[in-house]
Task: structure prediction
Amino acid sequence: MTAIAFDIPVEIERIAAGLERFLRAEVIARHEKHLELLEDPRRRYGPDGRYTPEVVELIRQVRMASAAAGYFNLCVPTSLGGLGQGYLAYYVCWEMINRLCGPHHWLGTFALSHWAFGPSPVLEQVTTEARERILAGLVSGRQSMCFGLSEPGAGSDATMIQTRATPDGDGWQITGRKMWTSNITFADWMIAFAVTDPARAAAKRGGISAFLVPTSAPGFTLQRVTLLHGDIGGAEGESTLDGVRVEPWQLVGSLHEGFRIALLGVSLGRVYNAARAVGLARWAIEKAVVYAGQRIAFGVPIADHQGVSFPLAESAMQVHAAHLMGLNAAILLDRGERAIKELSMAKAYAVEVCLRAVDRAIQTHGGMGLTNEVGLVHAYNTLRVINIADGTNEILRRTIYQQLAKGDLEL
Result:
């Protein structure tokens, strides 16, 4: 039984079914075995707010097991050693991961290579020497990376970055500060963006370059872990690069044209976040429907009260629409279309209505909905973050209107 009228390609359905079996055997089973370590934040994080070595090792095990099983590099180009699946497969699999694993079995987020954490089309533009040095570690899941774009004064307008890469012999020295960098607390590599031509950067005509930097490089320092939602630890952080030396082989793409790489990454991130939102919302609605049918109040299941059932029905409509919008945007991208308007719509709409769906699921559960045990608050926190990540909803609306004003009025 399906709510989608068109068929997902058989190959993608087969891959998703295999990935689901993998998640049950390698992710959910690991959570059950290491329940206290993975669910208790006092054990999950060390005094500095970073994941403990034991947790980092479990994350690495999931990545490597998924790579060995053929899922981790599912959407990585074949030129990098992946299976070369497109945006539709990426969307379908991320939606399924989040719907199946929910927030409790969070190791599932490492079963598929995320564009900023592992191999992806972003790395097609690294040099031959860089491929020889890093690809084996990243493709196998043994190592991971992060994406150093955002800075204190450069968030939605990333062209305002202040980090500089100044010529030094045949290479460069990078100096600057990065923040809101996900995965930085245990990443082996960073793609760091820096201004290489200040005049062009000031005119917003390029002048920004991307470099592959080992996080162990002299001058690279993780300054602090960024704590979110009252947590005692996390995977986001701030870093400084103080005269970090990079060689020509570490340049990613063309000199002064690195911002194109950033935009490619952000587009992948919007597909990922749209899928993630729908998956978590479906997980939450399913829990709420079951609970509403079981919880008795005033002599009847609370589902019999329209004040409970109607909000869930409304969210079901909205999440279904978000699901269709995400699938549509992914198919357009796979056809080679830019789909700027459609992808912006899909991400902005999905994260907003799915956040509302989780909030309604919390309300349906009453006091139980606020407990760590149920997990809805963790889903809510995640969705609140991705209302900002990879383009805020306000920036996306701006992009949508810009496309309309240019004459793209197909709706």
